[in-house]
Known about the structure:
33% of the residues lie in helices and 27% in strands. It is an alpha+beta fold. A four-stranded antiparallel β-sheet has the order 1-2-3-4. β2 (64-71) and β3 form a beta hairpin. The two termini are 20 Å apart. The mean pLDDT is 94.
Amino acid sequence: MLIKPTAELHDSFLAAHQEWSEEHQDGSGVEHARDIQDPEAFREWIAALERQETVPLKKGYVTCSYYWLVEDREFLGAIALRHELNDYLLNFGGHVGYSIRPSERGRGLATQALRELLPLAEQRGLDRILLTCDVENYGSQKVIERCGGKLEDVRAKTMRYWIDL
């Protein structure tokens, strides 16, 4: 189930973060966190994620809604919905970023998260969304296609799919 990020899952998020190690955690926004180990800094980061729904993080960014995929109070992954596209996102980033913690991959969780996100995108007034993935990311290609993604083109090794809502 998708929920808004919450400080109540601090320990579970930290455990997942350790699993990722140096791997980028698409859709989590963690790259902008000051210190996720510290509980107070973690709460501040959660509040910053919430603010991004109405105020872009910084110049050149767009507003964004963050969600966590949770099962039995365990953090399983993250997915983000960017509310609009700038030039970079139109070519390489798309409306959506997501990642599933390594120990939970292969269970269809990314597909579940994306399916749950689609009506939320529609509620934001979007009539279609762009998703991108690397040409070698076969798992993500399958997720996007299972959710109705239609390949438009490939730009600089980035596959660009649209999903009509």
